[in-house]
Amino acid sequence: MLGVALLVLGPAGQFLRGRNQRPVEEREPLLVGVPVTGRWRGLNSPASKVPSHTHGLAQTYAIDITHVPEGAPPRAMDWLWPQMRRPQSFPSFGRPVLAPVDGVVVETCGASRDHLTRLSPAGLIYLLVEGVVRSLGAPRRLLGNYVLLRAETDGSIVAVLAHLRRGSLRVSPGDRVTAGQQLAECGNSGNSSDPHVHFQLMEGTDITTARGLPFEWEYAADGEARRGVPANEELFVAADPR
Length: 242
Hints:
Elements: H1 2-20, E1 30-31, E2 38-43, E3 63-67, E4 96-98, E5 103-109, H2 121-135, H3 140-143, E6 145-151, E7 157-164, E8 176-177, E9 182-185, E10 197-203, E11 211-213, E12 215-221, E13 224-228, E14 235-238
Parallel strand pairs: 1-12
Antiparallel strand pairs: 2-3, 2-14, 3-10, 4-9, 5-6, 5-8, 6-7, 7-10, 10-11, 12-13
Helix pairs in contact: 1-2
Domain M23ase beta-sheet core: 129-204
GO molecular function: metalloendopeptidase activity
InterPro entries: Cell_wall_metabolism_enzyme, Dup_hybrid_motif, M23ase_b-sheet_dom
């Protein structure tokens, strides 16, 4: 009965929280730096669907990105075996995660474990149930290890970088950082199927009440310079900001 109650209350709570955090007005996208370098793929992108995740936890315009170096096999489901893999076997794991703006670190979490991947039928079922249980706890249960960075140019704008590698954080609350500075490494902590970087902007420092903000990056795709947000499954290259 407890399990059934959790499965009912979890989605209901997420729905109500999402309604309260739905943006109330349209905003022009804010240009910020890409928080990684190299070749990546867009997933769960606001360029393909809004909300890209949910409105809850200010994720309306959030994007997930996964590293795809030249010659690497495409990200794919493990249909038969293994049902779960160590995150170290994925190219995203351990990649540097950079500050998208000049600003001040307002909150961090760096102790959540990097769990096994969930890229299999059984793993995704486990991830779904696990996600419901995580949603009943503090936001860090979903975000895993993360950094909240308040923009220097506008103190109401906060960048969120999540699912970071345990023990990789190079900053602490109160630290002042510059755009392009390494904050941590990509990991597989929190509500994550496989190693990737979760990025979003929000208005305010409280992720449980803030509203998501649209953003745009400057990057290259198909050999062309672009400004916007990579769509789902779109490969893009982020230049080294330094």
